[in-house]
Amino acid sequence: MSQPIAPTYEADFTFGTQEDESFRLEAGGQLQPVTLHYAVYGTLNPQRDNAILVCHALSGSAQVGAWWTDLFGADRCFDLDRDCVICVNILGSCYGSTGPASINPATGRPYGKDFPLITIGDNVKAQARLLDHLGVKRLRAVVGGSIGGMQALRWAIEYPERLDTCIAIGATPLSAMGLALNHIQRLAIENDPAWKNGQYAPEEQPAAGLGIARAIAMCSYKSAHLFDKRYDRRPNRNGEDPAHKLDDRYDVSGYLDYQQKELIARFDANSYLFISKMMDNFDLADGYASTEEALRRIKARLILVGISSDWLFPTADVRKLAGKIHSLGINTTYLEQISSHGHDAFLAEAGELSGLLSPYLELTRTSSRFAIRAVAGSASTVQSGGFELSAPEYMSAD
Questions:
Q1: Is domain 9-173+283-390 given the CATH code 3.40.50.1820 in the classification?
Q2: What's the predicted TM-score (pTM) here?
């Protein structure tokens, strides 16, 4: 992985400070005021038409240059000599935007469990207000993986006139299995006595429950093939002997325990609860009579990326969604990232992902629909950067 890239600047944007300016939420309730923490990389051009919005996943932050470093650079997805990249910390998080740890103005104490349910749509609408504040009327692209991909899809539906290209990686509405896994993760947190019904002190969060939730999540983010290849049935690499001692671990257990500690040190348990519920509740039809009605609003070029070993968001589900959107006459491309890393591949193998996506993002700089079609019509398979770049299944009908 490359060295993290520092943002050109970071800032907070707060709205809803007046009594009559509450931010009404899709699930009911409201927030007032609302703060969004955001990071900007590069510079907006005089026309303010070179912006790319990046949407982060569950435990991500606005500092996309720290967690998606390999997408930055000349001939990569984000060329800061030509692009201005903006990333916004989602509502419900703990990295600067309004979330459960924020002060509830009605009580003078942190919201905790009293924080209202936030949806993907709420975040997109809040992000649109930030972009209005920055003077960005139209985006070159919206890009995101997982929950970030859900936001990208919602952007294409809610603001069809404001973006040229939507790239959603490993993102569809969750399956029943995904809902089940998220439910178990929340139970792990809520059954930790330290959770205290969500009213714990910041330095006394339910670490054990949050850690177990993270371990479950990491199993869903990776593939069985990767675990077998990387850890197999070997004892933990520090010399433990699980065959003879109850508390000694296998190597894969050591990996999961490391992941627990890493998240506990940087993330908030209540934020985990609310964001995972946001993930559960994502539905393309929200606010519309049907999924078809919602999808027909899309005018952007749509690029959906499946990950070959992803069992949380299986490629079959991503392909099915791409086919559904294509059948409505929308310019849709399906790409597949060939990886053993499972759902986590869009982060774990970001350099290869950049090789897959950069030709399409390059075309956003020329705004040429013909060029998009030319790439889509290339040879059936091309080896590039460790990926098998399959020719897209679906292309524009125009």
A1: yes
A2: 0.92
